[in-house]
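Lab meeting tomorrow. Look over both lines:
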Amino acid sequence: MNKLILALLLFVLVSCEKETEEVNHRIIKMEDFKEISITSEKHYFEEVINPVSIDLIGSKVIISEAYRVPEENPRIHLINSTDWSYDKAKGKYGEGPLELIDASSFFEGESSDTFWAYSMNRRKLVEYSITDATLLGKSEWKMTEPMMNLWFFTRATDSTYLGISREDKNRILEFDLEGRKIGGYGEWEKVEDRSNLTENQLSTLNDSWFKGNPDQGLFLRVGLRRDRLEIFDNHDKSFTIIDGPDLDIPPFELIDAGGVEHLYIDMEDPYRYGDAVVTESYIYALYRGVTQAEANKTGIIAEQIWVFDHKGKPLWNLRLDRSIIQIVVNEQTNEIYGLTTDEDPGIAVFRIPEELL
């Protein structure tokens, strides 16, 4: 009897392990999208110098500045989306307590009137009040040693973080709120004719942004140099990988540095996805498709948003009337906000087409 129970237990454990490795694959073509052109209204704020990231918490649009803006300038700006007025600045530049050098991403704080800013440069989170006027944060949390190789991460549940590393065998890593690693999900597939690539080299080849929606339990690896969008369902730890329209692996070379071969992708190859957002019904993915040289020459970075359902089915290609970087979706007002890439950058506001409502 004991042997039978043990055998059944092992069967269940193996079955569960297989479920966590489930990977669905979809290949898409441009013809799969229905094209819709949408126009925008731009809001300019003289306080904002060189915005690089945008988010939405409640009715507040949160913008971060590039790390290279003058040190006397704040790193973060809060904008009222209700009337498009400038609210206040946050983020005192510095390396001391409650200060930061950069703000790479944001997520909700411990209460409705706070938010966290992730400083990738100093590997810490700083919590800010939405209501008070001080530039300093109210608390901070320094990342633990097991988290030091993370590139991007975010709150996943009340008790966990999810993130991605540029040097790990897994696509997505999971940590508890104390910073202890508790899981790794999805292993890299080998590249045809290049089976010698290491896990770290494969991770670099699949360099991505990382976005998600804790309420939906869906998180995304957003391909920076490949036409690849990876949907991770945190409920069952499964992946849906969307490849295409370009299925080619970007050209790269291996360069020895101190006895270790690092993978470098050809800079003449176009950048692919620029950002993505998960909403209650859809995935909005900002697509670039231009090289850095082209972007530097024209100022055009991204003029398309590809819309998928939560299973990765391609639905619409929203053609934009202006170039943007980074997007956020306001589901209460049915609007998309994006940072413009013109000489006087601001916020472009697009109405979501009726077809999507």
Q: What stands out?
A: The two ends are 57 Å apart (CA to CA). The CA atoms of residues 170 and 187 lie 5 Å apart. The mean pLDDT is 93.
